[in-house]
Amino acid sequence: MTVAVIPAGGLAKVGASYATYPSYGELLDELAVRVGGLEIYGPVIEPNYPEYEYHSAHLLNPCHCKVIPLPAHPRGEPRARILKNYTAQFLIFLRHARSWRRVLIYTPSITAALATLAWRVMHASPRVSVAYVWGDWQQLAEVLPQRGALRRVLDPVQRRVITHQEAWLVGHADATLVAGRALLRKYRDLGKMVTETPPMIRLGELAGLQPSSGQRGSHLVTVGRLVPGKGIETLLEALLLVRREVPSARLRIVGNGDSQYVSELKAISARLGLINAVRFEGIIPNGEQLWSVYRDAGLFVCPSLSEGFPRVIYEALALGAPIVSTTVGGIPDMLSDRVHALLVPPGDAPTLAAACVTVLNDSSLAQRLARAGRALFEDVCRRAVGAGPASRLAILLDENNRGK
């Protein structure tokens, strides 16, 4: 019996196949083999859609992953089409909800909220249900831009729908996995079984990599999707201040996103006079080329305004990059200030800049942070043996472990 999966993000149509971003695709493929197959309800994005390149990187195995296509939500100024797509998604969920026997809902997203609402409306009774909460939508929504009149009207409504349905889902799911301890605190008393999970990365593969042991330069690195909420605007403002103290400082931005948003970031860089100090690298796939970016970094910076717990922090820890990060989500629960990283409040460019200057100007501090970070990562790996997301989800979705 297959597992119905409602993902948080879109699936890219690549010829006759479907794809998604690598870490999520690897999770879905592994989970599909473990549970006997998945039926994935995925909003399908076309080649002209923003972030298509990002979502087309990993082809899903069609032998184990059957995709039930949903209309994707338009980006930018949505106009009335967004209501049409919401309605189409909801109608599909209404037709299918009663057939779900094992279901995994990956939240928060409006698609997850509509699937949960259909479950409630149709009085569905899956034998096993699992929620996977990857981030705090209430926190994230506060920092997302609201472009267009319709979006400004819809966003507050959408926020309430998502948060209300997510709370119901966690309260009724047989088990809930959350990304980071901040979400664990939020939901541990609401759900039947709420536990924290490592992110969707191969910890064992990272553990086998050698961290940097050589001299570091003065360039900063940040890695991740270029989407609102990641704090890149704050980091650019901070870089301007950093260069007053460390003129050789440069910034490498690894990742891609909505082309309109990336253009806005480049315009900010130009306005601040940082064109020659900032490199937009685009997507660098996991592998030695990306690992060398971390190893060569004078400093890894996570300027996010909202997170569950970011995968890139684990990569920076594993590869021995000194870290400056904001205190969002589960980050301050894992990283101790001035032990594993320098921690700063989100959205505060002067404080972020001061922390970066401190690390760049103090090589002994940078080395201590890097060593402590690697030791912390190794401890995480020891505690996570056999507890990767796919294996944990497979166990939770096993009907034989349920008394239903």
Total E-strand runs: 16
- Alpha carbon gap, first and last residue: 16 Å
Second-tier CATH architecture of the largest domain: 3-Layer(aba) Sandwich
Oligomer: single chain
CATH fold label of the largest domain:
Rossmann fold
Helix content: 40-55%
Top CATH class of the largest domain: Alpha Beta
Explain what you see:
This protein is an alpha/beta fold and 404 residues long. The chain folds into two domains: 3-197 and 387-401, Rossmann fold; 204-383, Rossmann fold (3-Layer(aba) Sandwich). The protein is 44% helix and 18% strand. The chain is built from 16 helices and 16 strands. The strands form two sheets. Strands 1, 2, 3, 4, 5, 6, 7, 8, 9 and 10 form a ten-stranded mixed β-sheet that branches. The radius of gyration is 21 Å and the shape is globular. The model has no long low-confidence stretch (mean pLDDT 89).
